[in-house]
Write the structure tokens for this entry.
Amino acid sequence: MTIRLEEPPVLAPLEVAPPPHPVSPPRRRRSRKAALYPYALIAPAVVAELLIHIVPMVLGVSIAFRSLDQLTIRNWLQTPFIGFANFVQALDPDGPIGSALFASLGRTVLYVVLVLGISWLIAMIAALLLQKPMPGRGALRVLFLVPYALPAFISTIAWAFMFNQRDGMVNTLLVDTLHLMDERPFWLIGDNAFFVIVIVSIWQMWPFAFLMLTAALQSLPHDVYEAAALDGASRWRQFWSITLPMIRPSNTVLVLVLGLWLFNMFTVPYVLFGGSPPESATLISPLIYKYSFVNWNFGLGAAVSVLLLLVLLVISVVYVKVQLPKEEDR
């Protein structure tokens, strides 16, 4: 008997169909929209910046090189180009314009140093005193911010009313109550006018410094002070060696912002004295206003504004380079 071994049938290999390709979205259209989306978000801010800052600044710089006054203001785009004549006139120390400008610049520097230094000192003392929990701390903080919250025009008018009268509140306090003076001076004329703008500016500026310094002090770690106290460091040593170095970046920004505000201060002198302040209270900004809108010499006023811009730009760059800590110091 013969047994036949049949070979198994050869099966054909299964054909595996390739996976279907996913339908790709229109990448070009989507990527183009994604690329334009950030520009669409910042477009309103760019337009506002151009209309509010860039375009007026460019026009002001162009006016500084032209002879623009009350006779040529009607066709100001066709005024004659005079080059650097306005700058030469403003920087001539022997001329009346240059001598008044340099005197006003020195007076403005003194004003900025006094207001900034005293405002920072008052704000630092108040911020340090209110760091520890105490009854009424929240109410005191709100009370300290009232001068900053009030509109500058309203508060300055109130100060002008108190200083203007010989029998006003200031003279009554100094002469009748505290007996610090024998006579009742006129505060808004003569040399006393400079002290008035210093006092009013300190009253308006120190709450902002207090707010910034309070925020900076609240971010400091307490364990550093505890370790310093265990090592025997006094309060003054802790303030000088720990507090000031650690709030240095905040201090840099605060001093720079307040310095720029005070250098361009116009509200306080204008509300107190009008368009023609006494010589002792003539700062840079009121002087520019006088040249431009009292004497109608817009070209000279624009030239002084450009010079002030350059001076503040140089001072700001040097100050930031010197004060801000470098990367290797952090």
